[in-house]
Every structure is written in C-alpha cells, then in structure tokens.
Design a protein that fits this description.
Elements: E1 4-9, E2 12-13, E3 20-21, E4 27-28, E5 35-38, E6 49-54, E7 60-64, E8 78-82, E9 86-91, H1 95-98, E10 105-109, E11 115-120
Parallel strand pairs: 1-5, 1-11
Antiparallel strand pairs: 2-3, 4-11, 5-10, 6-9, 6-11, 7-8, 7-10
Length: 128
C-alpha cells in the first residue's frame, strides 16, 4: 500500500525578519499506510522537526525507515517511542540515514497508532 504523503511546512518571516510564524496543518496518520514526507530535506540543514501527536491513551512507536541511498542507510530503521496523549518532536540529525533518492523521508507506525503528524523546517529561500 502506498504511503500517505505530507509536505514540510515552513514558517514565514515577519517584516523585521525577527520571527517566523506558521499556522500548522496536521495530517491524520493512517498507521496501515505509513507516511512519506515529501522533499523532507529541501530546507536549511538540521532544521527539520517531525511532530507526532499520539491521541490514544496507549503508548506506541514511530519507525523512521532507512533511506535508499548510501552510506548511513545501512544503519537500518530506527524505532522511537511515542507516549500516550503527547506530542513528540523529532529533530533529524543524520539525514543520510533516512533520506530517499527522491528527497523524501518514510515513516511507519506501531500497530493501532492513532494520531496526527506534521513537519516543520526553515526554508532555504531568502527573506521567507
């Protein structure tokens, strides 16, 4: 089954370029499909934050899938806990472990996961 695709949301700088703001749109996770974050790394280095909201009253997991590019993809998938009724923020540090050749990041979720996801990163565009 194809993964559900979401896009990275980037804050927009206000007039003095002192603060960036963005009203976030959450995407509902279908745990059976998983998620693919389109162009996940087309932003300033190390600014990608993936936010996973577990709306269930049970703990679960999120699995960051190894990418299809060398070198660090050989480290494999990485499973992380997502506690019940919380929002967990993940900052991707090792891009080469998870990046696919098309620039996406694929994720799966524990069985029965219920919740939302959104990704935020700083744009590479000037004055945005």
């Amino acid at each position: 089954m194809a993964k559900d695709v979401i896009k990275v949301q980037s804050p927009v700088l206000e007039g003095t370029q002192s603060i960036g703001a963005k009203s976030i749109v959450k995407s509902v996770v279908n745990a059976e499909n998983g998620v693919s974050i389109e162009k996940a790394f087309a932003n300033k280095n190390n600014t990608l934050f993936v936010c996973v909201e577990n709306t269930d009253d049970a703990d679960s997991t999120v699995i960051f899938n190894a990418g299809d590019a060398y070198p660090n993809a050989m480290l494999g998938n990485l499973t992380q806990p997502v506690l019940a009724e919380t929002v967990t923020v993940f900052q991707i540090q090792d891009i080469s472990r998870f990046e696919n050749k098309d620039g996406s990041l694929d994720m799966d979720f524990g069985a029965g996961f219920t919740g939302n996801i959104y990704a935020v990163a700083k744009s590479t565009a000037l004055n945005v």
